[in-house]
Design goal:
Chain B: Pfam families: Aldedh. The complex is a heterodimer of chains A (275) and B (474). Chain A is of the alpha/beta class. In chain A, 41% of the residues lie in helices and 17% in strands. Chain A has 10 helices and 10 strands. Chain B contains 15 helices and 18 strands. In chain B, helix 8 links the parallel strand 9 (227-231) and strand 10. Chain B has 474 residues and is an alpha/beta fold. The chains are: A alpha/beta (275), B alpha/beta (474).
């Protein structure tokens, strides 16, 4: 009798350095009818270590290759489409999330052409400005859009060569954990994306104050006092901060290039011309 | 060695008033609180200058707001452009006066204020003037909007040049500004206010509030300011980042540096030595992007050091107005004290100190060009910004070690690479975490070329197309 077969349930864990560990704190919380890991300060620090370790390889890979890997993420997400629908994600949002990976995949080898410049200096010099990744970006994911919103903040940060530590939405974290499974099978090197479930209000201050994090995306912070304190903590090592949106975001709209350029540095190289 | 007769530039071209007020809404406003600005080369008082209070800053921000709402944001870009072109032209016309005044107030050699600072100031206004009616082509959308009122705080090392870097793009994008010059170098900014009057710039578009830290704090924390731009120390930059946290103010910061100047064994040695000297002794080393850490490949160490010492012995330290002077006065007693303290720490921590024989004037603030050898990465003189004519020399063996050492700093403003091998330049340039990489050159600036830092050297770019982004709502 097949109907008597006991289903195999999934344990929802963290995603750090390409692996799926439980929280080192041993904590979990009940949400969306599942036990989900409740990340701790130590998990934040482990995730930053993993993200930092991945920077050199990921930023050093070719733009072409990064584009291929992001496109692979779209392929994998397409294949798991029904899982996300089963988690309660509207079909249109799942489709938009897939298309968003495709959109950003195509940016990998174009953003430097759009955002860089040859500069006509008044002298015999070659002078070129090109964008480079900032490094490790801490991201508080948007709570209102657990899949499309998440993809819309992760993809633009990593397509240019950054690595991320993402604090998933507290109330609807299952899409984030399932997205981690997509990424784990997309040839994305371990550590490029790290996802922590739990309470961002508890973990975000550690991320904002971490001295080995280069930038902070507060897309999902809805508490103004928390946003201010995170921005203040970020000032200690002058993290680049993308503030919470002033008005509600339509995550389905054309995202533009702003989420990529917010986490890019411009490097300008000079060299004399001569014989 | 040649003997030089003094060749002083005449100071009669400048007409310094005994006292200056604040420049608010196109007019000079008297102020109660005042202090003196001195010539650092001889400690002579040059003028008395207002130190704007919180309520005076408030008045300036209100004037800037009114000018923004009523005039500047409504004016077509092509008209804004013409005002900026006018300003650029007047700066050129009054170039010699501005250069002499800058050298008097700052202490920098007239050769630099005349040949570097002032020409770049004019070029900067020309460059951004041309953008004012072309913003829709800059890659920020068809009709990018200005932010509103910009509060700008600038340092004392390039007083007029930093003013130009701040004001030119702000006005081109349609913002109005309240600018605070540094308390030790306010004079060229005050002459710039006169230039705004001469150009008939609408009142309130540019407001100059002189003063010290409290004035700056009042400006950046004023709720009527939409944009804060700061150039200065990382410590103050951090405080400003905290002060604007939780507001919607857009912030750009150009902060400190501890740049590595990396010399490989195949570098053209004479050019490299010129680059090392220019890198650390230009403007008395009061340069955030100064090449203050020399990294020499071990095989070339003796040769480079010998050539560097020979070259340093030829540097002429003295009267900033003398056209033969290479190194002028340290800008203030406080800065001199910091340079002395860190240099003493350098010796105490075990590095070897060397300066060429050099006679320093009796009055004023002076520091001989200095190098430290035997410096390790742990030494404070290898980690902290000295902001003076003091070079720390370290060595390396492989390109990978050079990259490792160059990047071993919380700063990331600039770096230099000297080698004849093209592929190595590009390999190094890819790996150096710095906003500007000078290869086989150093300390070059141009209005078309973006400048700004990685990491704790700040964020945002000044110059070039990128420089517009700091002043547009994008």
């Amino acid at each position: 009798m097949t109907s008597s077969r006991l289903a195999v349930r999934k344990t929802y864990k963290l995603f750090i350095g390409g692996k799926f560990p439980r929280s080192e704190s041993g904590r979990s919380y009940l949400v969306q009818d599942a036990n989900v890991a409740l990340a701790s300060r130590k998990d934040v620090r482990d995730a930053v270590v993993a993200a930092r370790a991945a920077v050199k390889g990921w930023s050093g890979t070719t733009a072409y290759n990064r584009g291929q890997i992001l496109y692979r993420a779209a392929e994998m997400l397409e294949g798991r489409r029904e899982q996300f629908v089963a988690l309660g994600e509207p079909e249109a949002e799942v489709d938009a999330a897939i298309d968003r990976w495709v959109w950003y995949a195509g940016w990998s080898d174009k953003i430097a052409q759009v955002y860089g410049n040859a500069n006509p200096v008044a002298g015999p010099y070659f002078n070129l400005s090109s964008p480079e990744p900032t490094g490790v970006v801490g991201v508080v994911a948007p709570p209102e859009s657990p899949l499309l919103g998440l993809v819309s903040v992760v993809a633009p940060a990593i397509v240019t060569g950054n690595t991320v530590v993402v604090l998933a939405a507290e109330e609807r974290p299952l899409a984030a954990v399932t997205l981690a499974e997509v990424l784990a099978t997309s040839d994305l090197p371990g550590g490029v994306v790290n996802i922590l479930t739990g309470k961002p209000a508890e973990t975000a201050p550690w991320l904002a104050a971490h001295m080995d994090v280069n930038a902070l995306d507060l897309a999902g912070v809805r508490d103004a006092a928390l946003a201010t304190s995170l921005e203040e903590a970020a000032a200690e090592n002058l993290k680049r901060v993308l503030r919470p949106p002033a008005t509600p975001v339509d995550w389905a709209a054309d995202p533009g290039t702003g989420r990529m350029t917010a986490f890019l540095e411009t490097k300008t190289v000079w060299h004399p011309k001569g014989t | 060695m040649f003997e030089y007769a003094p060749a002083p530039e005449s100071r009669s071209i400048v007409d310094i008033k005994p006292s200056y007020g604040l420049f608010v809404n196109g007019e000079w406003v008297d102020s109660e609180v005042r202090d003196k600005t001195v010539n650092p080369a001889n400690e002579e008082v040059l003028a008395e200058v207002a130190w704007a209070t919180e309520s005076e800053v408030d008045g300036a921000v209100r004037a800037a707001r009114a000018a923004y709402e009523n005039v500047w944001s409504k004016m077509p870009g092509r008209e804004r452009a013409k005002y900026l072109f006018r300003i650029a032209r007047i700066i050129q016309e009054r170039g010699r006066e501005l250069a002499v005044l800058e050298s008097l107030d700052n202490g920098k050699p007239i050769r630099e204020s005349r040949d570097v600072d002032v020409p770049l100031v004019a070029a900067h206004f020309f460059y951004y003037a041309g953008w004012a009616d072309k913003l829709g082509y800059a890659g920020f959308g068809d009709d990018p909007r200005p932010l509103g009122v910009a509060g700008q705080v600038i340092p004392w090392n390039f007083p007029l040049l930093m003013l130009a870097w701040k004001i030119a793009p702000a006005l081109a994008c349609g913002n109005t500004v309240v600018l605070k010059p540094a308390e030790t170098t306010p004079l060229t900014a005050l002459v710039f206010a006169e230039i705004c009057q001469e150009a008939e710039l609408p009142p309130g578009v540019v407001n100059i509030v002189t003063g010290a830290g409290e004035t700056g704090h009042a400006l950046v924390s004023h709720p009527g300011v939409d944009k804060v731009a700061f150039t200065g120390s990382t410590e103050v930059g951090r405080a400003i980042a905290r002060a604007v946290a939780g507001t919607r103010k857009k912030l750009t910061l150009e902060l400190g540096g501890k740049a590595a100047n990396i010399v490989f064994e195949d570098a053209p040695i004479d050019q490299a030595v010129e680059g090392i000297v220019n890198g650390i002794f230009f403007n008395q080393g009061h340069v955030c992007c100064a090449g203050s850490r020399l990294l020499v490949q071990e095989s070339m160490y003796d040769e480079v050091l010998a050539a560097l010492k020979r070259r340093m012995a030829l540097l002429r330290v003295g009267d900033p107005l003398d056209k033969n002077t290479d190194i002028g006065a340290i800008n203030s007693a406080a800065q001199l004290e910091r340079i002395r303290t860190l240099s003493e720490i350098g010796s105490e921590e075990g590095a070897s100190r060397w300066s060429p024989p050099c006679e320093l004037p009796d009055r004023g603030f002076w520091f001989a060009p200095t190098i430290f050898t035997g410096v390790t990465q742990a030494h404070r003189i290898a980690r902290e910004e000295i902001f003076g004519p003091v070079l720390s020399v370290l060595t390396f063996r492989t390109p990978a070690e050079a990259v490792e050492k160059a990047n071993n700093t919380p700063y990331g403003l600039s770096a230099g690479v000297w080698t004849d091998k093209g592929s190595r330049i590009l390999w190094m340039a890819d790996r150096l975490r710095a906003g500007v990489v000078w290869a086989n050159t150093f300390n070059k600036f141009d209005p078309t070329s973006p400048f700004g830092g990685y990491k704790e050297s700040g964020y945002g770019r000044e110059g070039g197309r990128h420089g517009l982004e700091a002043y547009l709502d994008v």
